[in-house]
């Protein structure tokens, strides 16, 4: 790996275009990739099911691999991530189809996540998958400008994963979303990043006897909510009075939201 | 940029794995004991040292 790292700069990967393997990697990368796959020192560490390998076992291995060549190690690190995401979010059928080939490195993984510039607000990056005339094939458009291991000639197939909840509310760019309906609080349960403020607030609300339900929240339900509020670390609980230009409730922060703001304030004073 | 000379020492790495990270104890837990042992972990690390440096 170490001598091959030089090839990442010179001659480097070449963009040759075309529909398949539009990016050609240096020959030394192919040898390294095969060696690492044969030795089972790559993607299999991302598998988190029965027979998983403890991550602390992998820590010194990754340290050595990254020191030898950070360019090459990216190829299987992203496959590891793809395996973990599939195990968390994919259907059993999808897992059975993709995971075995990803684990052996026959297929590679990549991620649908790259900042539009070099910023840190990844949530601002929007991409759309538009169906083509070919069933099951989509064209991806959006603000991504590059993607690590998005195309290369080391594997026969590369999986780019997107998780989404069609028609459902997930989260804000830097916030978690809560709605109030008939005195109960609802918040999206899957496919969202677990906010620390949201987690603390849920705990505080439940302690105060408020019923909090984590699950799917449809956009239509959000629009018809009695009250809506967001949470994040800098501002705590933030009331929402309009969604898509339409008033929520009376168009002012509701009774329940104000009560929850007070609960959270008390929680912060006591615990932080 | 990686260097061609090896800065890691095998002894240090094995110390990290065995003593510091406690992989042996970890591998004795139910989730792992039927699948792996210290010999597999050591073999992985040795194999990595070889493939990373050459």
Report on this structure.
The complex is a heterodimer of chains A (272) and B (54). With 272 residues, chain A is of the alpha+beta class. Chain A folds into 3 domains: 2-112 and 147-159, Butyryl-Coa Dehydrogenase, subunit A, domain 1 (Orthogonal Bundle); 113-144, no CATH class; 169-271, D-amino Acid Aminotransferase, Chain A, domain 2 (Alpha-Beta Barrel), CATH 3.20.10.10. Chain A is built from 8 helices and 13 strands. In chain A, the strands form 5 sheets. Chain A has a 5-stranded mixed sheet, with helices on one face. Chain A has a two-stranded antiparallel ribbon with strand order 1-2. Chain A is elongated. The relative contact order of chain A is 0.09. The mean pLDDT of chain A is 86. The two termini of chain B are 15 Å apart. The longest helix of chain B has 16 residues, at 38-53. In chain B, helix 1 runs antiparallel to helix 4. Helix content of chain B is 67%, strand content 0%. With 54 residues, chain B is mainly alpha-helical. Chain B is built from 4 helices and no strands. The mean pLDDT of chain B is 81. Chains A and B meet through helix 1, helix 2 and helix 3 of A and helix 1, helix 2 and helix 4 of B.
């Amino acid at each position: 790996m170490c001598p091959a790292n030089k090839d990442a700069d010179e001659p480097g990967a070449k963009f040759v275009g075309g529909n398949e393997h539009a990016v050609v990697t240096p020959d030394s990368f192919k040898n390294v990739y095969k060696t690492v796959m044969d030795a089972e020192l790559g993607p299999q560490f991302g598998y988190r099911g029965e027979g998983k390998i403890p991550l602390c076992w992998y820590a010194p291995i990754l340290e050595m691999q990254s020191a030898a060549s950070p360019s090459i190690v990216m190829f299987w690190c992203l496959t590891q991530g793809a395996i973990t995401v599939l195990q968390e979010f994919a259907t059993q059928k999808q897992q059975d189809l993709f995971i075995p080939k990803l684990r052996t490195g026959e297929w590679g993984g990549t991620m649908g996540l790259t900042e539009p510039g070099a910023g840190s607000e990844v949530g601002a990056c929007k991409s759309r998958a538009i169906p083509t005339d070919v069933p099951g094939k989509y064209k991806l458009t959006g603000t991504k400008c590059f993607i690590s291991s998005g195309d290369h000639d080391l594997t026969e197939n590369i999986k780019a994963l997107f998780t989404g909840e069609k028609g459902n509310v997930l989260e804000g760019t830097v916030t978690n979303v809560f709605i109030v309906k008939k005195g109960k609080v609802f918040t999206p349960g899957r496919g969202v990043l677990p906010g620390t403020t949201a987690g603390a607030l849920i705990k505080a609300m439940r302690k105060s006897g408020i019923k909090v339900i984590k699950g799917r929240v449809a956009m239509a339900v959000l629009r018809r909510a009695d009250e809506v509020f967001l949470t994040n670390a800098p501002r705590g609980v933030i009331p929402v009075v309009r969604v898509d230009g339409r008033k929520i409730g009376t168009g002012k922060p509701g009774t329940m939201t104000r009560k929850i703001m007070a609960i959270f304030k008390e929680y912060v004073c006591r615990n932080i | 940029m990686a260097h061609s000379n090896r800065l890691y020492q095998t002894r240090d790495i094995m110390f990290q794995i065995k003593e510091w990270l406690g992989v042996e104890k970890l591998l004795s837990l139910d989730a792992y004991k039927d699948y792996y042992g210290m010999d597999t972990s050591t073999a992985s690390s040795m194999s990595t040292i070889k493939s990373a440096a050459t």
